[in-house]
Amino acid sequence: MRLIEAPSRDHYDEVVATLPYTSPLQAWGFGEARKTLGQEAHRFLIQKQGKTVGAVQILRKPLVAGFSLLYVPRGPVFENPDDLLDLPKAIRSFARATDLSVKIEPPNPIPSTDPQEQEIPEQLGIWKRAKTEQPEHTIAVDLRLGEDELLKNLHQMARRNVKTAQKLGTVAGRDENFEDFWHIFESTNERAKLGQYPKSYYTTMLNAMQGRHSEAYIVLARHEGKALAGGFFVAVGKGTYYLYGGSIRDDRLTPEGEPYKDVKAPTAFYWNAMLDAKRRGYEFFDFWGIPARLSEDKHSFGVFKMKENFGGFKLWYPAYEIDLNPLAPVVRKMLQARKRRINIKMRGTAEDVL
Fold this sequence. Notes:
By secondary structure, this protein is an alpha+beta fold. Helices cover 32% and strands 28% of the residues. It has helices at residues 9-18, 28-35, 87-94, 147-153, 156-168, 178-192, 199-208, 265-279, 301-308, 328-347, and strands spanning 2-5, 40-48, 51-62, 68-72, 77-78, 99-104, 110-111, 123-124, 127-130, 137-142, 170-174, 214-223, 226-236, 239-247, 284-286, 313-316, 319-323.
């Protein structure tokens, strides 16, 4: 197995988009966004016996003292997931002496039936189970179902809220107003005590993901023109993925000085985002992240319950890694301790959000 530098963006993204196990985080545009964070993006075709069997976008994340980590976000993408076992040697040929480890997040999901985490393999060949950077647990919807069946699969409360939103005049769909999305996103993060990247990261991704084989777009729910809920999506192949978003409190008053009724903007957002994706030919809708531990005391349990209302099925996307340098375990412990300190400072708990 060999890594061949991708000859062009179009060639690389075409491979990423057409393979059965894939992810938009392996698309060229996602790597361009990561460059705004000071990371390197390297794209390769994976060849075996002269045939292209996959593709991989490797990010090099710098640390202090010239060291770095290699990270493959929700990848690599393969025609046959078993080929993953042959990949370490090819990655070692790319790695530098200062690369401490390489982490992968294979995009072929493991179905989840609560609780099923113990059935996730702890090892794939020499790859060892690791902490994910992207959400390990998610909910997805099969958009190949008819619109009536999708509606039927919604929780009774969600179906009622869809109708209420329509009755009250809440509309949702693709929207080009990034600033309205940004206001919602920032407000949500501040309310939930969540971190975020610089604004340039998101604007770069929005532009860089536009291509023949991938896209990024915004969906907003509005009532009388005011954006109240929304999200940022990336898509490749047959799937679209809800990466970032949220909602804001409606502080408007009617002409009589009374608060507005709840216009069910979050429900309108999710439902219309699903319909938009279906009508554009996407078959897979990923809500992107629910808690790994489904417990009411979990910080993000409410987000999980909201997403669960839209039907769908739970999936696991575990991560695996290989150490490339003897210093890797020591640095890993230091980074984990640093993350716990940040979590405690931001939210008063060492636990991750998901």
